[in-house]
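Thread: "does anyone have the structure for this chain?"

Original post by V.I.:
We have the sequence but no experimental structure in hand. Need at least a predicted one for the grant figures.
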Amino acid sequence: MSDSELSTSPSSVASILNVSNFFSKKETTRFAGSDDESSKKSDSFVTPIDLREFIRLLPDTIRKAQKADQGSNLADEESLTVFEGERNTSDVASGVQEDHIAALFRRLDVTRSEWERFEFFDPTRNYTRNLISTDGDTYTLILLCWNAGKESPIHDHPCDGCWMRILEGSVRECRYVQDKDEDKLVCIHDELYREGDMAYIKDSMGYHKVGNPTKDVPAVTMHLYSPPFQCCKIWLDPAHASQPSNSRMCYYSNNGRMI
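Reply from O.Q.:
Generated one for you, tokens below.
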């Protein structure tokens, strides 16, 4: 398996993360960016949550989001076979205000001591995909460890979406749509994300590739997929959009143990 593919090692049956007695409670705080004036107008406080609580809340939050989205995703049925000028490309934020999943992700107050047990780098690979947790039904949560100057191939997301949070370093995302007339993938969005930033993508917004643009600084990102999926399409050459390859979703480690 080459570094140009998403898979990084032989696959393994995913297991739900058992993190009893591993995390500590956090104090109650407001959302970052809230000011005194807004606090006077509203007593709206949020409680930061650790990784264990985040994982516990994920399934019900995802089901709630699915119910809220019913009947509102007709645009998603449109295939990605249009040129940039025919598609609304403004939907590039990390999730709209009513996105229950993004709101939960923002509450996650995760420290390095919590995620470093899942951190595995391999200098022979572009990046490693490390399984943190999955229930096999509503979500998969993984930690990606990016070597400097390395990137993924362009790929799709055969699910409801991918939420990404940068835990350390920086990553660059390039988003593409298909130009059916010239049979190529056209880059419509190019953005650099830094530590603490969040991003979101689903197939109706385009395909993308992610990578570490630095020369000597590694990067770590957390990715949430809902629902889980086993395979995706990858494009090794954007000049041949009609010729994707299939890639299995495999992991370098599972629950903090190398596979």
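V.I.: this helps a lot. Residues 138 and 227 are 5 Å apart (CA to CA).
O.Q.: and The two ends are 15 Å apart (CA to CA).
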